[in-house]
Specification:
single chain, alpha/beta, 7-stranded parallel sheet
């Protein structure tokens, strides 16, 4: 290859890189500065249901939805935490209504029809499937080091509860002219999460069933929109002290996710930082991607150990 050809090739590569970067930046601006489509689902006396709502991302979703004008149903497994969250919301939004649903999402024998029975007389237009994570956080371990019970709990929490609860909720959501199902995912499904492989795999399953569920809703013309929100590192109750350029607060993540409602995409990144991170990582060779994931995972595990 001559010097002139090399210069031409380098120029083409540079132009392509600049065009790609410009496209991604324009996408970020357009997506993350738009007005939310959430008001579409806000009718008189409307309720939103948030799973895993006693703290972290779920609690922030509950607060944000109440601020928009929704009554909120809080799901969780700890009655004391749920009652405290309900009391906090009532003190802040006394003109709204708040109720709770108690269920251990990692349990195998949940009566889902019985769980949603108290909602049959309510106008529910939003469901946020937020519950998930490591069912036994004290046992972050490689797969062969986990017990059968640990694996089953992780699968029940992350891969079984969300679709089963959603299945029971669909007839209630379908009674309204327009409803929304928002499924919270994890970038672990895209790049892996060592010592959390069941969690990462379950989130990959969640993305697939969310996509397919959205198609089913369109075929049946139920008026139920389905969106999947990818989540990167967030300062939650598990990772309160985690810091870094790609780490966001629960408020930043939830605000971004709500702002993306109605954007026309069925899969989004709740934070523009996570969108940008994903775009950058996709440009890296596989070996560099894997090193980045391993280093970030190790950093998060060390932070968890410090906080215990």
């Amino acid at each position: 290859m001559s010097v002139l050809q090399s210069l031409n090739f380098a120029g083409i590569v540079g132009l392509a890189t600049l065009s790609y970067a410009s496209y991604k930046l324009a996408t970020i601006v357009l997506l993350y500065t738009r007005s939310s489509g959430l008001p579409k689902y806000l009718v008189e006396d409307a309720y939103a249901v948030v799973t895993g709502a006693s703290d972290g991302i779920g609690a922030t979703f509950a607060d944000a939805l109440a601020s928009y004008g929704f009554n909120v149903i809080l799901h969780g497994r700890n009655p004391a935490k749920l009652d405290a969250m309900k009391a906090s919301l009532l003190a802040k939004y006394g003109h709204r209504k708040f109720d709770t649903l108690l269920a251990h999402a990692e349990d195998q024998n949940i009566d889902f029809e019985g769980l949603v029975a108290p909602l049959q007389d309510k106008i529910v237009t939003v469901l946020v499937n937020n519950v998930g994570g490591a069912a036994t956080p004290e046992k972050y371990a490689y797969l062969e080091q986990k017990s059968t019970e640990d694996v089953d709990k992780d699968l029940n929490l992350n891969a079984r509860f969300p679709p089963q609860f959603t299945r029971a909720m669909i007839p209630i959501l379908a009674r309204s002219r327009a409803s929304l199902i928002m499924n919270i995912g994890s970038m672990a499904s895209l790049y892996g999460a060592p010592m959390l492989c069941i969690y990462a795999g379950s989130k990959g399953f969640n993305q697939s069933w969310s996509k397919t569920l959205g198609l089913e809703m369109k075929i049946q013309q139920k008026g139920i929109d389905v969106m999947f929100v990818q989540c990167g590192q967030v300062q939650s109750n598990v990772l309160q002290g985690l810091k870094g350029i790609w780490v966001v607060t629960t408020t930043e993540f939830v605000s971004g996710a709500i702002g993306l409602i109605g954007c026309g995409n069925d899969m989004v990144f709740g934070s523009w930082k996570h969108f940008l991170l994903n775009s950058l990582v996709q440009c890296l060779p596989l070996s560099v991607q894997e090193k980045f994931v391993i280093d970030e995972n190790r950093r998060a595990m060390e932070e968890i150990k410090k906080e215990r």
